[in-house]
Design brief:
Chains A, B: It comes from Wenjunlia tyrosinilytica. 2 copies of one chain form a homodimer. With about 325 residues, chain A is α/β, with parallel strands linked by helices. Chain A is about 45% helix and about 15% strand. In chain A, helix 2 crosses helix 3 and helix 5 packs across helix 13. The first copy, chain A, binds a DNA duplex (16 and 16 nucleotides) through helix 2 and helix 4.
Chain lengths: ~325, ~325
DNA sequence: TTGAAAGCGCTAACAG
DNA sequence: CTGTTAGCGCTTTCAA
């Protein structure tokens, strides 16, 4: 290769890496040689000397649920992948099931086997973000554990979205006893959506009532159970804001089973814009968060951070919107 | 490291790679040194010399649809990931959107940047399997293009599953005019499910009628359109076998809009065991294919093939089963 | 600006 | 069985 272009190995390398310290003449010669020989640099050899891997990991903690089947993860993956397609960065998918796998992951990251990390669905007690900070590995979370994080993260406006939804139930549908089925208290996203609910209730002038608040775990089963509890505690409930579409679907089923016609008796609203919301019949009104855009933003942020070592971490909040699929 | 154990570099390497040509004594010394120094071998350096990458790519062609949101892909990913977790093979996720990206992928694979390839959702005209065969890269497909493939693949028993479903409609529900909404003819999976439908109709002794067959594209919109066509062509249709759950959901909506009550007037059956099938109300009876198991099998097959260069490719067919979620 | 040379950390071939 | 040696293909000083 160096011979073919009539220059030294060093010069070839400089051309490929776009160094400015190369004469036009040499650059042209090398580029011609590249074209003729169909030369493709060996990334592994490069990695060995640069100690970069040109790969980022997307970490998805995966408990018992089929979480991954939800559009949230798919959309994140799509967004990340789309953003990375323009670079020659590889996307490693890392599902973490067991605590053993968590430890292996920690080792893996500590060994700097990737250049950066994206994480979704972080729980309160997750030590990974701190580890990432400590080993100074560029990282971006979607969501956060609570309060300030040591690494960058992108979030959607959960509080605002929840307020939008609950206000819709109160003002447009005229509901008077709006309940909420929210997520586990150890997830910031659940707390925020609950906050939004409470704010909207306060704004409406209705009486807040803790019996109208049910915690669940973002699964359909959880949604069903929560709905049953709500019906016992406040049989007069006439609207439900569920903090996820799957829970909304579960609630819907219970309402139907209990003989209540939806939406005549009860208004139901989910959070995500999802398969479930769309395929439930009638489709649920819901709050859409721009999930794919969140994925793209995460990737962009990560790339920037990888290019600018030591840069301060950022927090980005993307807007949410109400999607009405049926008339009130 | 070699010094610490009081042996040569070569011996260290042999111990790490589990070579049998090492004395117990030396092995113990090295392992102790490893433990004390917390030594972790550098994979990149190893890759450079072995020219293996310890990574496999999962290729997902992704057209305009939100395909990835369907449980099929998620379950495949879960299965593959679970199987790979035991090895130290990395999983690269490769979504292919544009033809430009397809070409980049072809280059990428030709450059042997991964040790093996898993592919899902292959279409008739996909050249990738042939490329993989040509460059002798271990590869496993889920499904096939049509007839024999040059590489290994795992499939579910689509013909049998479709027969099961249609027989259920005919025998248990007593339907007389069973229609089918099937996938695009350029996908083997669609042709097989259509075959199964035809066989079951033939078995039942009912008159086959091409007006009862509608092709669609595995999307909900496609399912709706197909259902509309069917209602025009054979208003007496009293059962539908849809070759995917999403299409079944679309068909369901049209049936409801047309004032027909399901399941009183009409029986509907989907193919996959999915979020949609479960959340549709009432839940659809459906045919379940063991998707996660398919993912695991794909990964296992690939690992075997990587370990045994030159091995003949295999075809595996996994059974399907009928899942009844409501009484007839 | 550029060629030459020195490794990056590992494995594999080769003598012992 | 084991120590030594020679690279894998690239980037990066370091002189020129």
């Amino acid at each position: 290769m160096a011979v073919r272009a009539g220059v030294g190995r060093g010069t070839v390398s400089r051309v490929i890496n776009g160094s400015p310290r190369v004469s036009e003449q040499a650059r042209a010669a090398v580029q011609e040689a590249i074209a003729e020989l169909g030369y493709v640099p060996n990334r592994v050899a490069r990695s060995l000397v640069t100690s970069r891997t040109d790969a980022v990991a997307l970490v998805i903690p995966e408990p018992q649920t089929r979480l991954f089947a939800e559009p949230y993860f798919s959309d994140i993956v799509r967004g990340v992948s789309a953003e990375l397609a323009g670079t020659d960065m590889q996307l490693l998918l890392t599902l973490v099931r067991t605590s053993h796998e968590r430890q292996r992951l920690a080792q893996y990251l500590s060994a700097h086997r990737v250049d950066g990390v994206l994480m979704v669905s972080v729980h309160q007690d997750d030590p990974l973000p701190d580890l990432l900070k400590r080993i100074e590995m560029p990282a971006v979370l979607s969501g956060r554990r609570s309060g300030p994080e040591p690494v960058s993260h992108v979030d959607s406006d959960n509080v605002g979205g929840a307020r939008l939804a609950v206000r819709h139930l109160v003002e447009v549908r005229g509901s008077r006893a709006v309940a909420t089925i929210t997520g586990p208290p150890d997830m910031d996203v659940a707390r925020c959506r609950l906050d939004g609910y409470r704010q909207a209730i306060a704004d409406s002038g209705h009486e807040p009532d803790e019996r109208l608040v049910a915690h669940a775990d973002f699964t359909e089963e959880g949604g069903r159970e929560a709905m049953r509890r709500l019906l016992v505690r406040r049989p007069d409930v006439d609207a439900v804001f569920a903090a996820s579409d799957v829970m909304a679907s579960g609630a819907l089923r219970i309402l139907r089973e209990s003989g209540r016609s939806v939406p005549d008796d009860v208004a139901l609203i989910g959070f995500d814009d999802s398969v479930v919301a769309r395929h439930t019949d009638p489709p649920l009104t819901s709050v859409r968060q721009p999930t794919e855009e969140m994925g793209r933003t995460m990737a962009r942020l990560l790339l920037e951070e990888m290019a600018t070592p030591g840069r301060d971490h950022r927090r980005m909040v993307l807007p949410t919107e109400l999607v009405r699929r049926r008339s009130a």
